[in-house]
Each structure stands twice: as structure tokens, then as C-alpha cells.
């Protein structure tokens, strides 16, 4: 049976309406924006019968000066024990917006924290990288701290092995009304298992439309998007692109995390098409969708999961200059340090000035849409 895309969309709309109606703010400790959560899952070690579990809470534990008091540390340690789906201390909640993991049985202001020698439930800190968690397309869990070694945190739990198995998301209960559908902690969308893949659709590589969901898990709802852009050195027909990756029929569309940004001959294709949000200063690729942001991180020019807050590694701008004749006007630059834009250029293995081209034109053939430099609407098309 082929899972019809319209049917999937209906599930998605209904599920988000359910969240909005229920007022799911329980784990939103930073502000009052609605949260999107993946609920009722366990974190199981692949190829073993071990699951992450929070140790029993000691009587009288409380927070002191926004930190856990010493007597409560051991009661909030997270360890591996034999999996038991009936054990409430093994059930977790993922806050997709803030990329945080909470215990379904502990206080809402406690977050799974990657410490130097252990895992623990600690007071949620808005700027703490130790509390940022992600899932890849195989549903493997990794910490933002362990950027270069995704299994480093697992080694803390298993000091007796150099080759630990990853910790994976394992769905238990559905909140969508269908036991085969759940909110994926990887995509932030409703995913449904048990359906055949449309083999004909698998061969369709080109993305025709942007997949904006109407909400932003990593920032406030206010957005100001440009129309489609090309990025590159157009004098030499060089455009920035990501590797093509299939959007399949059951939701496992996303294989762009960490993909290298490359240079190829300019074409009218989605993996060379970008949009810029003038509010968050982020760049999105059409092929990858809004889950991923252009990033300059650890000397790598890649697409990465969009981070919550004002992650400097994902903030970009286009040089204003002194006028249209200014040589570097419109040049793509890294927001943190305008001088470091030469480093990402070197990573592309060529030495151009990367600029933008607006693809949307009005009836007179002029650029139309928000100008990525000054944010003003230009052209005679409708706003």
C-alpha cells in the first residue's frame, strides 16, 4: 500500500492542532511559545537490551541557586540498565524547538546534560551546549558537545568498551490516533511506519516546492524570507550546491546533516537554490528544506541542523558596501567576523567573491522580492 502524501499531510495538520489546543508548554522554561514535542519513547542501545534510565530520586531533593544541591546529584544520574517499557524512569520527552531531552517523570526544569564524566538531569540552561541533543536519520542520539565523536557520551556509560553501540530513539505510544504514526525527534514531523515506499517516487530527485511548515523550531515565528537565490561566482559559472538527496514517501527524507557545501556549474536545480531569512540571518537550501542551515563550523562549510537561539556558526549577511559599484557589495560573509569569510571561500577550493542572484523577476525582468542586503522589497511583483 502506498502512503498517499495528502493523507500524511492530514495527519500532520491534525497533530499540530492537537498540540496547539492542549497548550503543551510544560517543558518551555524559556518563554511561552508553543512547543513541539516527541513524547513517550525510550532511548535504547542498539544491539543490546540496555536503555537510558534516571536513577531514583532522593526524598527532599530541590534546586538551590538554580543548580541541583549536592545531595541530589546521584539521584539524577542517567545510566544504562535493562530495558523495561513499563518503567516510567525510562521514558523521555524531546523538545524539538530547544533540542532538549526531559524525563517524563522529573521536574520540567531538568534537562538531560552531558557532563565531563557522566550524564545527569540538571537545571535547564538556555545557552548550555551540554544540553543540546540531536537525532540523525537512523534515530541515533548524539550530543552537541560530541561534535567530532558522536559516541563519546556512550563511552562514559560503558567504560569497558572502545566500540559502543549508539543510543537510539524507540517509539512506544502514539499520540496521533494511529499506532503507526508518531512525531519524529529527527525531523520534527509526523512519521508513519509500515507503508511501502513508492519506487517511482524514489527516483524523483528534484524538489519542486519549499517545505515550509509554518513554524520555526529554532526561533520565534517572525520571519522575513527572500525569494529564491543563487549563490556563487557567476562570472565563472560557479554556484554553491549541496549533494542531491532523495525525499522519500514515508518521511525519511533527511540526509543533509553535515553534508559538505560544494561548487558546481550553475543550473536551475533545487540543490543550488537558497533562501535567506533577514530576521535570523540564516540560509536554507531548497533541496534540504528548513530543517538545515548553512554553517561554518570547525573549518567546515556544511549544512547542519538549525540550532536554537542565535547560533553564530549559522548567521550570515551580505556586504552593503558604499553603492552598486562597490566591488564587494552583496558578498556573502560570516556574521561573527567579516574578515573570516575568506576562510569559507578557501574551503570551497576556489577563490571567488561569493555573491547572490535573485531568481524571481517581475514583468519587466527586474529582480523581485526582499533584497538580501537591505531587506527592502524591490520590483513590481506583489508582496
Summed up:
The protein has 383 residues and is mostly beta strands. The protein has two domains: 5-183, Trefoil (Acidic Fibroblast Growth Factor, subunit A), CATH 2.80.10.50; 205-378, Trefoil (Acidic Fibroblast Growth Factor, subunit A). It contains four helices and 26 strands.
Helices and strands in order:
Elements: H1 5-22, E1 37-45, E2 50-54, E3 63-64, E4 67-68, E5 77-82, E6 92-95, E7 100-103, E8 110-114, E9 119-123, E10 133-135, E11 141-143, H2 152-157, E12 167-171, E13 181-183, E14 190-192, H3 199-202, E15 229-233, E16 238-242, E17 261-265, E18 274-277, E19 282-285, E20 292-297, E21 300-305, E22 316-318, E23 332-334, H4 341-347, E24 355-358, E25 369-370, E26 377-378
Antiparallel strand pairs: 1-6, 1-12, 2-5, 3-4, 5-9, 6-7, 8-9, 10-11, 13-14, 15-16, 15-24, 16-17, 18-19, 20-21, 22-23, 25-26
Give short descriptive properties of this protein.
383 residues, mainly beta, Trefoil (Acidic Fibroblast Growth Factor, subunit A), four-stranded antiparallel β-sheet
Description:
The chain contains 4 helices and 26 strands. With 383 residues, the protein is mainly β. The strands form 10 sheets. A 4-stranded antiparallel sheet has the order 7-6-1-12, with no helix packed on it. Strands 2-5-9-8 form a 4-stranded antiparallel sheet. The longest helix is centred in the first third of the chain and has 18 residues, at 5-22. It starts with a helix and ends in a 5-residue tail after the last strand. Residues 1-34, 195-204 and 247-254 have low confidence and may be disordered.
Amino acid at each position: 500500500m502506498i502512503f498517499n502524501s495528502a493523507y500524511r499531510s492530514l495527519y500532520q495538520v491534525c497533530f499540530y492542532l492537537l498540540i496547539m489546543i492542549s497548550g503543551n508548554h510544560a517543558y518551555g522554561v524559556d518563554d511561552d511559545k508553543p512547543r513541539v514535542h516527541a513524547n513517550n519513547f525510550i532511548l535504547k542501545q542498539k544491539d543490546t537490551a540496555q536503555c537510558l534510565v534516571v536513577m531514583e530520586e532522593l526524598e527532599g531533593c530541590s534546586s538551590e541557586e538554580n543548580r541541583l544541591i549536592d545531595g541530589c546529584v546521584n539521584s539524577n544520574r542517567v545510566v544504562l540498565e535493562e530495558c523495561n517499557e513499563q518503567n516510567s524512569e525510562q521514558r523521555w520527552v524531546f523538545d524539538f524547538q530547544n533540542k532538549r531531552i526531559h524525563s517524563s517523570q522529573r521536574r520540567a526544569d531538568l534537562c538531560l546534560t552531558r557532563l565531563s564524566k557522566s550524564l545527569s538531569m540538571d537545571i535547564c540552561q538556555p545557552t548550555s551546549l551540554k544540553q543540546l541533543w540531536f537525532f540523525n536519520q537512523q534515530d541515533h542520539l548524539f550530543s552537541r558537545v560530541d561534535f567530532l565523536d558522536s559516541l563519546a557520551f556512550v563511552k562514559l556509560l560503558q567504560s569497558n568498551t572502545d566500540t559502543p553501540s549508539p543510543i537510539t530513539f524507540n517509539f512506544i505510544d502514539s499520540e496521533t490516533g494511529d499506532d503507526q504514526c508518531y512525531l519524529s525527534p529527527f525531523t520534527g514531523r509526523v512519521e508513519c511506519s509500515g507503508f511501502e515506499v513508492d519506487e517511482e517516487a524514489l527516483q524523483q530527485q528534484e524538489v519542486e516546492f519549499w517545505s515550509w511548515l509554518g513554524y520555526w523550531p529554532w526561533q520565534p515565528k517572525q520571519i522575513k524570507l527572500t525569494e529564491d537565490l543563487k549563490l556563487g561566482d557567476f562570472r565563472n559559472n560557479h554556484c554553491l550546491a549541496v549533494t542531491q538527496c532523495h525525499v522519500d514517501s514515508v518521511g525519511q527524507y533527511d540526509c543533509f546533516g553535515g553534508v559538505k557545501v560544494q561548487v558546481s556549474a550553475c543550473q536551475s536545480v533545487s540543490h543550488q537554490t537558497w533562501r535567506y531569512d533577514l530576521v535570523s540571518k540564516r540560509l536554507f537550501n531548497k533541496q534540504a528544506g528548513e530543517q538545515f542551515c548553512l554553517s561554518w563550523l570547525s573549518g567546515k562549510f556544511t549544512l547542519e541542523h538549525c540550532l536554537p537561539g542565535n547560533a553564530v556558526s549559522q548567521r550570515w549577511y551580505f556586504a552593503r558596501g558604499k553603492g552598486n559599484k562597490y566591488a564587494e557589495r552583496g558578498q556573502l560573509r560570516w556574521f561573527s567576523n567579516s574578515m573570516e569569510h575568506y576562510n569559507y571561500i578557501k574551503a570551497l577550493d576556489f577563490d571567488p567573491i561569493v555573491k547572490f542572484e535573485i531568481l524571481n523577476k517581475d514583468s519587466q525582468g527586474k529582480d523581485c522580492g526582499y533584497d538580501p542586503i537591505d531587506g527592502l522589497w524591490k520590483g513590481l511583483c506583489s508582496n
